[in-house]
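Discussion board: Methods & Data

I've been asked by a reviewer to show the raw model output for two of the constructs in my manuscript, not just the figures. I'm not sure how much to include, so I'm pasting the format here to get opinions. Each protein appears as its amino acid sequence followed by a line of discrete structure tokens. Is this the kind of thing reviewers expect to see in a supplement, or should I convert it first? Here is construct A:
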Amino acid sequence: MNLRKQNKKQLIPSWLMIIASFSLAVAFFLPYVTATDAGRNLLGASEINVSLLGMIKIHRDLAATPPYELVGTIVLVLIGLIALFTVLSLLFSLLKKPLPTLIFAVLNFAVFSVLKWDLTDRRVIPSGLYNWGFSCYYLYIGSVLLFAGAIWLLVVKRKAKKKLKEQEEL
């Protein structure tokens, strides 16, 4: 197999990884929580659709309030880890490195699962004011797509390496 055919086989999984990791970064700007109908009447316009970046502001203010310092700090750390793992996934996707991308996709999935569990367990979301927004669900979909692309590229690279080794032996 020549190098051109090998690169063509790697093209689709590479692009899948890049697009999925970039869309995870874009998900930071999409609504993570959305106000319910009852909440729309009580909340201001800026509080109807709150992205993960908006959640940072809310929990930064919460971390400054004495009885809620720990809760606010924990959520800020979780959102920071999601951002870090998303950027690292994007970086390794661009470098076409499937194994590190896979690791950071799994870590990202785990951290935002913990964040969602925390907000649900404390009955913050869903509540009378808020329900989950598009970004909350997309983080799962994007992570699965990133995971699939990384596995696919890993398999394609392993097969190409095995085939190259067999050709060298001949």
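Construct B, same format:
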Amino acid sequence: MVNKAALASSTCLSMTPMDAAKITHAYSTDYAQGLNDLDANRAGFIPIGQKRWLWRRWWRQQVPQIIGIVLISVGVVASAWFSQLLPRWDDEALILAGVFFILAFALNINLLVKWLQHKEELAHGVVSAVNGNVSLQTGNGYSASIGKLAFKISQDLYLNLNEQDQYRLYYTPQSKILLTAEKLSDE
């Protein structure tokens, strides 16, 4: 869940990975239960609730590719079946089955690589942050950027951000997904 607030500037802070003792403390005691997402991100890690949200989000994004793999696999079976059913189309159907098989194999490898990268990022659980004035854009949805970093955001967050205020945005370092945002004090 993204908190109301936003980010800006091009100062990029990279949180250092927590050592094993801090991670054990955060996940094995009431410490993690008492933290909200923002507090956990400030401490430099992705809490369990955000990890679950990131996994659900990742799977929803992969649905079109999974459907494609299923349809291509059906094409492989149908082509092989036609090659047996219609002897005069034997060569063409087997070539088509081979093409479908190569496409399905490539999509499966692509999905596996993406899954492993996402799994590794969440296993490390490290959060990065950027500070500054946020620049808001609309077009293909809503987005907020600070310097060269751009994030897709919800309409609610878009309406609550002010380009004149200073924000700190917490995000996943590899996939650049916005986790939380906080307005910095006006000091």
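Answer (T.O., handling editor elsewhere):
This is acceptable in a supplement if you add a one-line summary per construct. For B, something like: The chain has two domains: 11-46+125-183, 71-124.
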